[in-house]
Structures are given as C-alpha cells and as structure tokens.
Amino acid sequence: MTLSILTDDEIRALLENLTASELDVFLRQLQAALHEYSTGTQLSAIHQPERTSVYSATTGATTLFMPSVSPAGHGIKVITLTSPSTKTEVDAAAAADAPPVIRPTGAITLFSPQGAPIGILHASTLTAFRTALASVCLVNKRDNVRTLTVFGCGEQAYWHVRLSLLLRGSTIRHVNLINRRFSDNCRAILPRFYTIPHGVKQREGWHECQFGVLTPGYGEYGRLLEDHLAAADVIFCCTPSTEPLFDPAILTSSDARRKGRLIVAIGSYTPQMHEVPVELIWQATRPHEKHHHHHFHKHVTEGGVVVVDTLDGALKEAGELIEAGLEPTQLVELGELAMLRTMRLAEDKAASSPALEPAAASGSIPSLSTDVSHLDLSGNSNNNINPSFSSANLSIPSDIASTTTTDDTTTTTTTTTGSNDRPASLSSGSSRPKLGPRLLSAISTHAPKHSHHRSASQTSVATTSSSTADNASSISKKKQHQKDADRDHMARWLQAGNVIYKSVGLGIMDLTVGLAVIAHAKEKGVGSHVEGF
Predict the structure, then answer these.
(1) What family is this (predicted)?
(2) Tell me, what's the pLDDT at 100?
(3) For the purposes of burial, counting CB atoms within 10 Å of the CB of 447, is it exposed (0-12), middle (13-18) or buried (19 or more)?
C-alpha cells in the first residue's frame, strides 16, 4: 500500500490550478457522499460520529477531532484554531499578554476500508476548500449570480469566491468583501485574485469582474454595507462572529424581499457564535397563510426550511439555529438536495417505463443524462459546464430504476450515523432514495394547491367497477399533479428564492475530498508517495 503525504503548499497549488472539468469531478464525488449520508442509501457503510473538542488554557486554542467512515475508507481530521472567546474576552490592556492567534492548522489521516494508511494531508487549505465546495453545490443551482457579498477575508472567504468564479465566472460582475478591520488577510486577499493569470480569468469568464474591500474605518461604511447586501445575489458569511454581522432589517424589509438571495453561513460553529440575524432564520421558516396577502406577489419564493450540512451538528452547534429555536422539521440536509436531478430522472423513468419488471430483474440503472424540463437543478443553465450524470462515478442503488413512485404516507425512521437517536433526514420507508419528507412537507405548504371539480354527470357512474377505476385514476392524477407543483415550487426556491445554508462542518467532507485530492495529486505527480508503508 502506498502512503501519500501532501503539504499545504502542494495542496494549495493543486487546487488553485483546477480546471472547471476537474472541479466538477470533486463536486460530483462530494455530492454523492453527502447524498448517501443524508438519505441512508448505504446504512451499514456510512458512519459519522460526532466530533469532539479539547480546549487548551495554555494556548487559548481549541483542537477538534473529526472522524468519519464511508465505503471508500475512513479517516480523522485533527485541527487546532484559536477559540473565539480568547479573541473577544481580552481587553486592550491585556492584548499584549494574550496567546498568539492560531489559524486553523492540522492534518487529515486517511485509511483504506481495510485500515491501511493511505494518506496524510495538511488540513488548512483542504478544510477551506471542502467547505466552499459544499457551498457551491447551492451556488451552482442559482439562476442569477452577478454580485457576491462576502463577510471575512480569510481562507474560507477566498475559496468561496474562487470556486464561485470558477463555476459561475461568466455571470459574476462584482465581488464585495467586508471585514471588521483592515487586517493582514484583508490586505492580502485582493492580490490573490489580481495575480491569477489573465488567460485563466478569460477562460473562466470573470476577467472584467470588479473587486472591493469595505471595513468600518471607511466613512460611509453603514450606507455601503446596506448597498452591498441589497445588491447581493449570494452572501457568504465566513467569520467566527459571536454576534450577527448585519442589521436584519436590511434584508427583511418588503423591498428587500423582492430579490432572491442565497445566504451561506459557514464561519460560526459553536452555540455561542452567530453570523446570520435570527430574524432572517424566522422569516425563512415561517409558515405562510394559504390566502396570500396583498404584498405576497412582490416577494420571492420561500422554502420554509433552512439547509444544513448535518442535522445533528446544526441542532447542537449552530448558534443562529439554536437561538431561533428551530425543530428538525424546519431543516433539510444538503445531501437531500445535492442529487435531486438524478433522483427525479430515476422517478420519471420508473413512472413512464412500461417494461418496469424486466428492468428490475436486470438491475439496470436508467440513463441519467436525459434533460429534465422543469427541475434541472444541475446548475448548468448559466455556465459552460455540461456534465453528464450517466458518466459520473456515483454510488446510486440499482433498485432506483425498478421502484415505482408512490405518494403514500411514509414513516420517519432513524439512520445510524454515530448515535442511535439521529433524526432521519430522509424517510427510509422504501428501498430507494426519496425526497425528504420534511422538505416536501414544507414546500407543499408554500406551493399553490390545485383542486379539480367533477360535474354532476361525472359523479353518477353506471357501473361500480368503472367508477372505482375512474376514481383511482383521478386520485392518482391529482397526487401526481400536486407532486409536480411541489417540485416546481422547490425548483423556483432553489434557483431564485431566498435560501439559507448553515454549515458547521462534517467529517465525511474531509474524507471524500481528501481521497479525491490524493488521486488528483498522483495524476499530476505532486507530493511524496511512500511505497510499501
């Protein structure tokens, strides 16, 4: 077995030079892993224990231990960073005596499924990259991505912008960076974008993009902050803040709600930390009246849920969601959304194919490169990437093609991911992946309802058998009609509505992306590779 060792500089060089097609390989692998984690398609193979942490009073830093197991192998990340409390509780007089700030640093150790060590990777750049890679799963679904507003100027901020430019650079025209002070990171981040070769910028389509940095020291900070938030199509919050980063009124006003935005919050990771105002969380999850009030037509689509990377982690560690008092039914995992296009194609194939039984017998998987007219969530409408799901190495159960779509009420069960009481992110009432019941339930309350009225002649049927058949057919059509309406509403929400994504970090991300980095490094001849370790 070969042990691969990659330094932070080597990893950064590899990732900085990814092409769009190479990034797409990383993206697909992460989407598949998150999908398996959230839907429980491989219950015995996916295991995600809770992370543990240790605080050092000597260094003022917290060390996190994040294990994970997947069919591809298992691994653990150990990463150390300065605790937020040491940066906020030290007054100016004692600042000189405070321990030095430790930026996130550590290593990821990866093993084969049989336990053989296969990789040791520096964790700094890789952690920022994998977090951003998960976030752009949603960015890639948006209809309009012209203006990015970013809180923070560190590695997380850089990689969120960099991957957005790589995937959606042809439409992005403005990147507004906002930082609490003009720090070293603040000084360094713009040159990192400016020094990217012009040919790369042209190839990715953002050679005319304008960048700017805003700090409170600027005289018109308050006005420009509001302007940047109002203009944003995507807002990235990448700071370990212990208080909301902006006034909620800026985005909760009637005028602000006419524009759909994707808000990504990845910087806060403890119950005491907050980036997004709780009022925005309440607005995103508030049930709407069946009869729309007179302003409703001016507001963009709401989903009724907050997207999270992990249900368990978000409920225990996301300060905003804890303060908002959200229940599991108001959250949906990113993995439930990441593969929606694949799942919809399989359902359509199963529903329309007359040769359903032979397909089941052969265990074949339907072609996944077929176009979906009104639920194409692959994110390729506004960029040059046109991946084919049929060629991706995704872990999709073969029984997808042979299971008939039904609308019966499913029973919520638990999925083992490190604790026996994990709330199921997706109902496992059948053997194939389904859309999450929480998501469909929430979407259904926001989607328009359709009613069909029978005439008197239709209700008096001559024979009982034909009446039963007609009623069954009518009920089936009604259910399918409403199901399509719910999916249409969900598509509008993800593509153009107000979406909030909260990430606290997940070990399966490190494992999946780490293995992909090792494979890419071997292909490029980068790193140290010890044979027979």
Answers:
(1) Belongs to the ornithine cyclodeaminase/mu-crystallin family.
(2) 80
(3) buried
Minimal CA–CA distance to 360: which of 401, 390, 415, 326? 401
* Cβ atoms 389, 342 nearer than 8 A: yes
Sign of CA dihedral 367, 379, 334, 193: positive
Higher pLDDT, 92 or 74: 74
108 close to 120: Cβ distance less than 8 angstroms: yes
Report how far residue 453's alpha carbon sits from residue 44's, in angstroms, rounded to the nearest whole number: 48
Count the neighbouring beta carbons within 10 Å of the beta carbon of residue 498: 21
* Average pLDDT value for residue range 84-111: 70
pLDDT tier, 440 (very low <50, low <70, confident <90, very high otherwise) = low
Q: Which residues neighbour 82 within 8 Å (Cβ) at sequence distance 6 or greater? A: 60, 61, 62, 99, 101, 102, 103
The pLDDT value given to residue 237? 98
Q: Domains of the chain, with CATH numbers?
A: 3-127+509-530 (3.30.1780.10), 138-336+492-504 (3.40.50.720)
Structure tokens at 352: 């329309």
Q: Which of 13-22, 76-85, 243-252, 361-370 has the lowest mean pLDDT?
A: 361-370
- Res. 356: pLDDT tops 50: no
Rounded Cα–Cα distance for residues 414 and 328 (Å): 13
Q: Are 129 and 104 in contact (CB under 8 A)?
A: no
Nearest CA to 57 out of 24, 89, 30 is that of 89
The pLDDT assigned to 390 comes to 32
Residues in the chain: 533
Q: Which residues of 316-326 are buried (b: 16+ CB within 10 A; e: fewer)?
A: ebbbbbbebeb
Burial class (CB in 10 A: 0-12, 13-18, 19+), 355: exposed
Checking DSSP bridges between strand 61-70 and strand 52-56, what pairing results, if any? antiparallel
**Residues 336-346 pLDDT 10s:** 997 665 555 45
Q: Phi and psi dihedrals of 525, rounded to 5?
A: 70, 35
User: What residues contact 265, with CB distance under 8 A and at least 6 apart?
Assistant: 237, 275, 276, 320, 500, 501, 502, 503
Using 50, 70 and 90 to split pLDDT, how confident is the model at 465? Answer: low
**In a 3-state reduction of DSSP, which class is residue 77?**
strand
* Residue 91 parent element (H or E): none
DSSP codes, 94-140: GGGGSPPP--SEEEEEEE-TTS-EEEEEESHHHHHHHHHHHHHHHHT
Compute the chain's Rg from CA coordinates.
Answer: 24
CA distance 272 to 343: 37
Structure tokens at 272: 């005491």
Q: Which of 239, 139, 162, 242 is nearest to 499 (CA)?
A: 139
pLDDT digits (tens, 9 = 90+) for 136-178: 999 999 999 999 999 999 999 999 999 999 999 999 999 999 9
What's the confidence (pLDDT) of residue 420?
37
Q: Round the average pLDDT of the chain to a whole number and report it.
A: 78
Separation between Cα atoms, residue 317 and residue 260, nearest integer Å: 27
